[in-house]
Structures are given as C-alpha cells and as structure tokens.
Design a protein that fits this description.
single chain, globular, 308 residues, mainly alpha
Length: 308
C-alpha cells in the first residue's frame, strides 16, 4: 500500500513539474497561434499518440459510463482550458494563476458530497490551504498591486470549479477499473469533440506554413506529448491511487515550478517575495497533504465510532 502511494506521489509531482513548464512553451507559440489553436493541435496530437500506444477499441458496459467520459472531456479538456485562456485576455495572468490554484478547495467540497470514501477534511487541510494561497499570492503578484477585472476573474473562478469537477469525474472513472491509458484516450476524444464548436467561434485557422519552424514543432510536441498525452495519464493514475482531494493539492506547486523555470529559461528575476512565497506554498502543501492531519482524522473516526 505504501509502495502504491509513493507511485501516486511521484506521478503527481511529475505531472505538476511538466504542467508548470508549459507556460514557456505556450508563450512562445502564442506569437503565431491563437489559444484555441494551440489547445486543438496539442490534444489531437496527444490522442493520436495514445491511440498508437494502444491501438484497440475501448468498449464500455453502458451509457452511464460513456456519459461520465463525455463529461470529463467537456470539463477537463475543453471547458477548463477555454475558460483559462479567455480569462487571460481580460485580466492579468497573476490573477488567473492565483484563482485557478484554489481548485483543490472546490475539489475537497465536491468530494465531500459526491465521493463518500474520501476522508473528512481536517483543520490542518484548511490551514495549509490558506498558507499555500498566501504563498501563491506572493509569487504571482510579487509586490504589484492586484488589479481586479470582474469578467476575467469570474472566468478564472469558473475554471477552478470546472477543474474540481474534472477531478471528481476522474476519480469516478478510476472506479470503472479500465486501463488508465484507454480512459485518458477516451476523455481526450470527447474533449476534442466538444472543442470543435469553439474552433468556429474563435476563428480557427490551419495555416500549415507555421509548422515549418523547428521551434514551433518542438513546443507543440512538448505540449502534445508531454503536457497532454503523458501528464493526463500520470494525473489520472495519481487520482486513482491518492484520491481526488490529496492529488489536487499538488496544484499548489504549479506557480512554484513556473517561477523556477522562468528564472532559468527566461532569466526572470527571483525576488525575496518569490522565495517567501515558495516557502509558504511548500509548507501549505505539507500541511494539507501530509501526515500532520492524520491525528485529527483518527480522533474524528474515534468519536464517530463511540457515538454509534
């Protein structure tokens, strides 16, 4: 059991590290591509790769399972990324980064309602949550004034809620006991289907001449193969092993990874507030995810047992 949990933690860390570095690749590609174009190309590529890795049909037992996959594709593949990208056109990236990072809180609330097997939340979870959010604020704002934009910030909040819904759906999908690679491929399939109407709404263009650039190809491969094909498999595996709430807490690390990689690759300065924010985020992760809340949970279970 402990060995399995270790695999879950490694999968979550690998996923967050790669997702945290996608900021650089996306920034490079945005010079030639629209956000929806990057989204479409990366997931079509990822779906193709997953099909090549396991070229066999995936049959499910009923329409309820099929509907769950369709919902996961709509929330985690199509709607989340569209909301996040559109939010960036209305408000600051720091706002979107901070707001989307609160998705573990929404995941915990939804899990408490829809997933009965998830353990009750402890006070340490909420203390860790607020510490992590404080750290994320220091990293993202870095001393600058927070400029609120109601439309953009509300879209970012919706994105955080949508990702929480996706995490719950992935947990339900993991209980179907299908291979993770096949379930991820099915989720991508529905995500691409839901994405097609958005292509027309946001003036999608093929423009094949753009793919002649080696830098473009490299960054698309990184987003398609690494951030999509690989990471959605590892994320789904982590959720299946650790649970939706515990895995989602790793999202707190995304701003930390982004700041570190930006400093190395883009030569962005690392300030005192960045270091302090990183420390707070890591402390919040340890409190929310670690063993510090186990004693409180055991007390709760003991009280419940005595009352029955």
């Amino acid at each position: 059991m402990a060995h399995s949990a270790t695999k879950g933690h490694i999968a979550a860390l690998l996923t967050v590290f790669i997702w945290g570095t996608t900021f650089i690749s996306t920034k490079v590609l945005l010079a030639d591509f629209q956000p929806v174009e990057i989204l479409f190309f990366r997931f079509v590529m990822a779906y193709t790769v997953l099909w090549c890795c396991c070229p066999r049909w995936f049959h499910m037992s009923g329409w309820r399972e099929e509907a769950t996959f369709a919902a996961a594709g709509f929330t985690g593949i199509c709607l989340y990324y569209l909301l996040e990208n559109i939010a960036l056109t209305y408000t600051m990236a720091s706002n979107v980064g901070v707001i989307c990072s609160v998705s573990p809180f929404f995941t915990a609330m939804l899990a408490a309602v829809f997933i009965k097997s998830e353990k009750p939340l402890t006070p340490q979870f909420f203390i860790g949550f607020f510490l992590a959010i404080a750290g994320i604020c220091l990293i993202s704002f870095n001393g600058s004034a927070m400029e609120l934009n109601p439309l953009g910030d509300m879209l970012a909040v919706l994105a955080a809620v949508v990702w929480a819904c996706y995490s719950i759906l992935i947990k339900k999908i993991s209980r179907f006991d299908y291979p993770v690679l096949l379930t991820t491929r099915r989720t991508f399939f529905y995500g691409i289907l839901w994405m097609i109407p958005a292509l027309y709404l946001f003036d999608f263009q093929w423009a094949p001449a753009r793919f002649a650039d080696g830098i473009v190809i490299f960054n698309l491969l990184f987003l398609g193969l690494g951030a999509s094909a690989l990471c959605f498999v590892t994320w789904s595996s982590a959720v299946a092993i650790l649970g939706a709430v515990k895995t989602s807490v790793y999202i707190y690390l995304l701003p930390v990874v982004t700041v570190a990689t930006s400093a190395v690759v883009l030569r962005e300065p690392v300030t005192t507030m960045t270091v302090a924010g990183t420390a707070l985020t890591l402390l919040g992760l340890a409190l929310s995810e670690g063993k510090l809340g186990r004693a409180a949970h055991d007390k709760i279970e003991h009280v419940h047992a005595k009352s029955e």
